[in-house]
Write a structure and sequence with these properties.
There is one protein chain. This protein is an alpha+beta fold. About 30% of the residues lie in helices and about 25% in strands. It has 11 helices and 21 strands. The strands form 3 sheets. Strands 1, 2, 9, 10, 11, 12, 19, 20 and 21 form a 9-stranded mixed beta sheet that branches. Strands 5, 6, 7, 13, 14, 15, 16, 17 and 18 form a 9-stranded mixed beta sheet that branches. A hairpin with a 2-residue loop joins strand 10 and strand 11. It is globular, with a radius of gyration of 21 Å. The two termini are about 40 Å apart.
């Protein structure tokens, strides 16, 4: 059995950032990161659009808003210090018709409240920034950027190891139990003992939380986001990032165009129920995962309330033509032959028992385990600040109370 001060479960960017911040806050602290896959950043961290979010969308005062704005500043500084490539390229959020102007007003208001600089622009200025974009109005957000989050995670992991920490890949957690003021973590690579543990298991976070004996306030329902990428010369249609004005009822931003740090341009994603929590293709089915989703009252209430939108997302999943039409609302010059399939991602969406989508970070304490139950976008952008917040909570809370909830409703 290996003994540590802190064990972090999950080798995505939030988990590794938490380990890194713990080593900074208390030099000499013994830390281990446990990752079930052979490499870090395999799931959500390595399968996203790589956007450094500005913080413009989020409700003022929410954890998302506060942590994103500061997190972006800190992550850019980290990349500068560590030589990780990123780019502040800017994006436009486009209202394609008059009906979307009101939602654009609300985003502009939120941006101002969150301290995010943006410019309200008309069609002529929009065409100067993105010559192939179409809309009646838009917000230009110059501070939005792009980065490779897997590369950031690898650099954080190297710093953890340099500080004496251990990164244990191919190490699946099988169970957790309290033992005399300590935490015992049973894994496929043996048992780990720690003073405290942090659950950053992403798509499996609610299941790991259940191992602690706590009852998470929400369950994870996996939504697959499917992407295309632009072929060759078609990349000229998109200079940087082109986003639609999102539907305020949902945390999903709608299909959009994203230039990646490697120069590729991705289009998407949609959002459809995944039949497996780690099923990145349409044929992947995990009976346990599917039963968990369909047997959860929260998901059934969500589906009953929003079945029409869900049907539209599912139709875009099976019909490339429908997907292309959605993209053409933003960039009319796009054609079906310009698109080729790109790797999908899966969002670990926490759903409350009443069917509500948990749209903020949700962190719950159960004994000596801190469970990051919900860490949706912009968690990657905010990862250094999330990790610092968790590390401070752990190191200052010598006698943790059960189910001490850290969340913003």
């Amino acid at each position: 059995m290996k003994s540590f001060d802190l064990v972090v479960i999950g080798g995505g960017i939030v988990g590794v950032a938490t380990a890194y911040q713990a080593t900074l806050r208390r030099p000499g602290l013994s830390v281990a990161v446990l990752e079930k896959e052979p490499r870090l950043a395999t799931h959500q961290t390595g399968r996203n659009s790589g956007v450094l979010h500005s913080g413009i969308y989020y409700r003022p005062g929410s954890l998302k808003a506060r942590l994103c704005v500061e997190g972006k500043r800190r992550l850019e500084a980290f990349c500068d210090e560590q030589g990780v490539r990123y780019e502040r390229c800017g994006k436009v959020i486009v209202a394609v018709d008059d009906a979307q102007r009101g939602a654009l007003d609300e985003i502009e208001r939120r941006g101002a409240a969150n301290g995010v600089g943006c410019e309200r622009i008309g069609p002529e200025r929009l065409r100067e920034i993105e010559p192939h974009a179409a809309g009646v109005e838009a917000l230009h957000v110059p501070s939005t950027g792009i980065v490779d989050y897997a590369a950031v995670t690898e650099q954080l992991a190297a710093l953890v190891e340099n500080a004496g920490g251990e990164i244990a890949t191919s190490t699946r957690v099988l169970g957790l139990r309290g033992d005399g003021g300590r935490v015992r973590v049973a894994t496929t690579a043996g048992e780990f003992d720690a003073r405290e543990a942090v659950n950053c298991a992403g798509l499996q976070s609610d299941r790991v939380a259940a191992m602690t004996g706590g009852r998470p306030a929400a369950r994870i329902v996996p939504f697959r986001g499917e992407y295309y990428k632009l072929r060759g010369d078609a990349r000229r249609v998109v200079r940087n990032l082109i986003y639609p004005t999102p539907d305020p009822r949902f945390p999903f931003l709608g299909v959009h165009f994203t230039r990646m740090i490697d120069g590729a341009v991705e289009c998407g994603p949609n959002a459809v129920l995944a039949l497996a929590r780690e099923g990145y293709n349409k044929a992947a089915i995990n009976p346990r995962d599917l039963a968990a989703s369909l047997g959860y009252g929260g998901f059934l209430r969500l589906a009953a309330k929003h079945w029409r939108m869900g049907a539209g997302e599912a139709w875009r999943s099976v019909s490339k033509r429908a997907f292309v039409r959605a993209l053409q609302r933003l960039a009319p010059d796009i054609r079906a032959e310009d698109l080729e399939p790109a790797p999908a991602g899966i969002r670990a969406q926490a759903v409350a028992p009443d069917g509500g989508l948990v749209d903020d970070f949700l962190i719950e304490r159960s004994g000596r385990v801190l469970n990051v139950v919900n860490a949706p976008s912009p968690a990657a952008t905010a990862s250094l600040v999330i990790g610092e917040t968790i590390a401070d909570r752990l190191l200052l809370d010598e006698k943790p109370s059960p189910m001490n909830v850290i969340r913003q409703s």
